[in-house]
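Comment thread on ticket #2218

A.B. wrote:
> Attaching the input chain for the structure job we discussed in standup.
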Amino acid sequence: MGVYLITGAEKGIGRSLALALNARGETVIAACLNDSDELRGLGIQVEPNIDVTDMAALQALASRLGETGTSIDVLISNAGIFRSDRFGELDYDNILEHISINALGPLRVCEALRERLAEGAKVGIITSRMGSLGENGSGRCFAYRLSKAAANMAGINLFHELKKNGVTVMMLHPGMVATDMSAGGKGDFRPPEEAAAGLIRQLDTASLGDAPEFRHANGEALPW
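C.D. wrote:
> Ran it. Output below, let me know if you need it in another format.
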């Protein structure tokens, strides 16, 4: 059994990850933007007010974990946003907010918590195949695509930085998931519980290699 820290854990995929990992006996630390009485009621350690755009909050979390001697075996950077946009009406502040949360968020989380990562730890960055340059055949969603492409690059850099300490980094696409971000998830959207199960399977099989990986929750290797 290991210690799993999940950002954005109070809802959506993050909540489903926390519930599934707790159910199989893992120690879960739920880093939440707000709070979660539900998770706390299950015996999960809830860390509220963790905004991935706030380095001071992340450093304070690292300090609290250090005081208890907690080492993280698996760090899941899940917090993110999605808002649709349209060329000709782009809101550049919105694009910058996407980048700050979706791309710089994982970077801040890893930098703040790097001393708390156990030897042989794993880092999973929940990104999206919409950040793939090779698979962009439709355009649109400028803010989200730009931020997720940047998240993938940040993850590759983190892979090279952290592998010196035996820590592996994997970029993970959850699939099309029915959450608040997907406005209810119409069509072929899958439930967050199903996505979480797939993401956990990928993290379970992740190992330190010579090159970073970008995987779908179903195990498919995705192009950068």
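A.B. wrote:
> Thanks. Noting for the ticket: The chain has one domain: 3-216.
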